Amino acid sequence: MSKKKFELEVPVQASPSFLFNYIYTPSGLSEWFADNVNSRSDKFEFIWDGAEQTATLIKSKYDEYVRFRWEEDEGSKYYFEIKIQVDDLTNDVSLIVTDFAESDEIESAKELWLTQLEDLKHAIGS
Q1: CA triplet 107, 108, 113: central angle to 5 degrees?
Q2: CATH of the domain at 86
Q3: Using CA atoms in the order 56, 5, 28, 90, what is the torsion angle rounded to 10 degrees?
Q4: What CA–CA distance (Å, rounded) separates 95 from 15?
Q5: What does the mean pLDDT of the chain come to?
Q6: The whole model's pTM is what?
Q7: Do residues 95 and 84 lie in contact, with contact meaning Cβ atoms separated by under 8 Å?
Q8: Which residues are bridge partners to 8 per DSSP?
Q9: Strands, E assignment, the chain
């Protein structure tokens, strides 16, 4: 079964440089994405309730986005990306998440991301 791509956009009241630390650094990601995050070079180890999952940082651009690929998806086109978008007219900041999930799991994956993004907003006081 192949995974389908989906996107979510969530407004966040924070500057891109402030947000970038929360989506790029292990300490920032530990605040909202996982219980703990460790990194060695481009390998990130995410820990939830004692279970570990490893992802490779495959692309990033300072103050703009990070893109990871889970170890289990190595060799595939699948990834997850967190992008910081600033509206040219209003300067409103949003996070755009791109991820992939099985067709029957897309809604639950979206709900999980929304919960995590709410945790991020709470962590940064947004």
Answers
A1: 100
A2: 3.30.530.20
A3: 140
A4: 11
A5: 95
A6: 0.93
A7: yes
A8: 97
A9: 3-11, 36-40, 43-48, 51-61, 65-70, 80-86, 93-102
What strand order describes the sheet that includes 65-70? 3-11, 93-102, 80-86, 65-70, 51-61, 43-48, 36-40
Domain interval for residue 13: 3-124
Phi–psi pair at 38, nearest 5 degrees = -125, 150
Report the pLDDT averaged over residues 13-21.
Answer: 94
Return the structure tokens found at 19: 């947000």
Domain count, the chain: 1
Amino acid at 18: F
Phi-psi region of 102 (alpha: psi -120 to 50; beta: other; left: phi over 0): beta
What letter does residue 114 receive in the DSSP assignment?
Answer: H
Band of pLDDT at residue 126, cut at 50, 70 and 90:
confident
Whether pLDDT at 1 is above 70: no
**Alpha-carbon torsion (68, 9, 30, 99), positive or negative:** negative
